[in-house]
Amino acid sequence: MSSSFLRAEKIGMRFGGLQVLSDIDLEIGERSLTAIIGPNGAGKSTFLNVLTGVLRPTEGVVAFRGQAIGGLPLHRIARLGIARKFQIPSIFSSLTVVENLQVARWGSARTEWPEDELLEMIGLRDRRSVQGAELAHGEKQWLEIGMAIASSPTLLLLDEPTAGMTPQETADTAALIHRLNKKLAVIAVEHDISFVRALGADTLVLHQGRFFRQGPFAEIEADEAVRDVYLGRR
Amino acid sequence: MRDPSWLIAFAIGLLLLALLPTWVDSYNLTVLRDALIFGLFAASLDFFWGRTGILCFGHSVFFGLGAYIMALVSMTPDIPLPSLLGLLAGITGAGLLAGAVGYFLFFGGVRGSYFTIVTLALSVIAQQVAVSWSSVTGGDTGLIGIPPLMFGGLDLSGDVASYFTVVALLATVLLGLWALSRGRWGRILTAISDNEMRAAALGHNAALRLTMTFVISASTAALAGALYVAMAGLVAPDLIGLLLATEVIVWVAVGGRGTLIGPVVGAVLVQRAQQEISSFNPSLWPLIIGCVFVLIVFLLPEGVLSIGTRIRALFRRGAA
Amino acid sequence: MEVAATTLLNALTLISILALVGLGLTISFGLMNVTNLAHGEFVAIGAFSVYYIQSLGGSFWLGLMVAPLAGAAAGFILEWLILRHLYDRPVGAILATWGISLILQQSLELIFGLGAKPVVPPVDGVSDLGLITYPTYRLILISIAATTLLAVLLLLRRTGFGLDIRTVIQNREMAEAVGINTRRAFAVAFAFGAAVAGLAGALVSPLATVLPQMGVNYLANSFFVVIVGGAGSITGLLAGSSFVGGFTSILNYQISPSLAQALVLTAAIVLVRLRPNGFVPVGSRFS
To answer: Which residues form a coiled coil (chain C) (predicted)?
Structure first.
């Protein structure tokens, strides 16, 4: 296998008798921006778990810079430069905002983002000494994105980053991702189409655990077959 | 506890301990000295339990291991620097055992109650081995005639000298553990006990961090054990057994988990109470310890020192 | 050959006792996720019941019937007064049950006085098994234990109450959703485990040194059983008891009992590392 940045080849995933993913390929380059969409149950989250190495696929292989990552311990994957934001905000509730960012930064050898710039970016500068447990839901989401960035990754995976956000917050998140994308590659799993439109990224559509379409979002949006999938006509 | 108030409490405590010999007789001084050694032991447990939330129910194993190794090494005929080598060997031995236990349990994914149970079993067995391996450990009676602390020509065996040795070591170790637990190390530990998977996804090796914390905690316990036998001059199986393992939990719980100073105060106060009560009925003590366990769980989960915080909170509410 | 047969029967004696004591622990651990450090005292209460009945002139068999009732009563009270308030505080439960354990030990000593208590076995002598002779009482012990375990297995597999218990072990929320009264199930299961531990105490009383502090050793050993076998299943209980009991009995011939125990604990710790998902179910190890 050539050592491309991130490459998933012929990915299949089976839980017991249930085939959740079959025969999916994906290859992305450094500082690329990719969105993964699809209706509920398309296997988006499972695919993301496979991409981050948390789940070892039953078929196929995921390689990051040429190294297979399926089933590696979580901290080893993180140290390769892969960061992840979970769907449910999971921050350290007994630590303050700034301590959360510090712990994230100490996990990796590199420190590319100064603390203050990070706090500014995620809009929590005035809340730096507040305990994680006392943050509002949206603030937790932002903090978690901040933690993922603080670990100075070269690949950032976001699982539904705008879940529970207001339209304004969603737009801000898209702008933040564009800004980050200048330094690192981003993959976002999302079902909020307006957010994906704002991202304007290369888009992979999954349907019933299989590859369905891939291309620039404008093309995907214009595709009649994709609409059918979303409206349940197919 | 916030930083300034911890340092103030530490400074006041140290000042008090430093001035005490001017008005306390030498008998009471040695009693306090021994209680402070057990206070150091309590702080060692608190460093692990307080920061990780994982209870070790066999910490006496490390205290006792330090004690027995100190006894055996420093009693070896013609050994150079017996006290120093004994201390180092005891600390290293306990650290290695803790490292092995941590490697098998923490890296095997064991946390919480399972860890507590395995360490409990460890202390039951350690005591049995100490009793039955009598050719080395002296069996039930233990070993006597352990030489007092001597470093080259420096004799620290006198009542006042040994007292100040203990106070100095206690203060140094407490400051060290405190610095460790309020800095990077402690924050990462807090993060791991909050949400281990998240910490791992940020690149932290939780099992390794827990194991290293356990090793530091066990080595500190061994230091206390080694000091104790050098001061007392004898070692016996009750220094490694289950009763001591549970008493140290009481000291930490009474003094307040996660404060480091609290457990030292708890150790001194509880042992004082133990002497008072045992002097008129020795079999009453285990019964009282039992009741204290139950009462702490239901009434004072934050420890006896938390009464102060609660009263202050009451006043503030009254004033507002 | 004779040695092998005797070792086998010795192992069976030990395995029976471990399985009976371990049953209550695996129930409270697997079902309620609670670590009960006062479990060894149920064994002591069972043994003291037999001693007390005999000291009043009653027979061993009467004592054997009273022991599980005494154990059940103690278990019921402990669950009602202490444990049910601590189901969401695992460390609190550990500390409180340890306190209760000390209180029970000291109370037994205050009531019955210092020193070991004599218990007379119901039958003396040995039975000729062809190949070897073996103490008759130990054979009775093994049969009573085996019968009890079989009855427990049937109770869990064939009755409505057993179904409730298995549902709660599988999924507590689901059990509540289908209308099982989990609190009541906990209380009954806990008292039941205590009763079986009391029975075990009565069975060992003619062989063991009956002391208020006798429970601690049974506690440690039966925790090994649960660690090795995994919590919450009868199969795991039997596997764990066989491992610990068999290993200890074989080693007892070569080395001192305490060294044998140390080796068994070491083996159990190593097993946890080698088979993190095998012997021990992941879900119950994390709390």
So the answer is: none
Question: B24 touching A, CB under 8 A?
Answer: no
pLDDT in tens, C15-48: 999 999 999 888 888 777 788 999 999 999 999 9
C-alpha closest to that of A82 among A168, A184, A14, A188: A184
Using a CB–CB cutoff of 8 Å, tell me whether B272 touches chain A.
Answer: no
CB contact under 8 A, A102 and B206: no
Greatest mean pLDDT among A134-143, A188-197, A221-230, C45-54: C45-54
Q: Nearest residue on chain C to B292, judged by CA atoms?
A: C99
Write out the residue range of the structural domain in which residue B10 sits: 3-240
Domain presence at residue B255: no
Q: Does B108 touch chain A (CB under 8 A)?
A: no
A74/B201 Cβ within 8 A? yes
Domain-embedded: residue B272: no
A&B contacts, CB < 8 Å: 66
CA distance B199 to B192: 6
- Hey, where are the domains in chain C? 2-212
* CATH T-level topology, domain A33-53+67-230: Rossmann fold (3.40.50)
Domain ranges of chain A: 33-53+67-230
For chains C and A, tell me whether 3 or more CB atom pairs sit within 8 A of each other.
Answer: no
Domain contains B180: yes
Please determine, for residue A2, whether its predicted confidence score (pLDDT) is greater than 60. no
What ipTM was reported for this prediction?
Answer: 0.86
Task: Enumerate residues 18 to 77 of chain C having a beta carbon within 8 A of any beta carbon in chain B.
Answer: 29, 33, 35, 37
| B315 Cβ under 8 Å from any chain C Cβ | no
Chain B residues with CB-CB distance to C94 below 8 A:
55, 57, 113, 116
In a domain, B283, yes or no: no
CB of A79 closer than 8 Å to CB of A64: no
Gap from C184 CA to chain B (nearest CA, Å): 22
Q: Count up the domains in chain B and report the number.
A: 1
What's the pTM value of the predicted model, to 2 decimals? 0.87
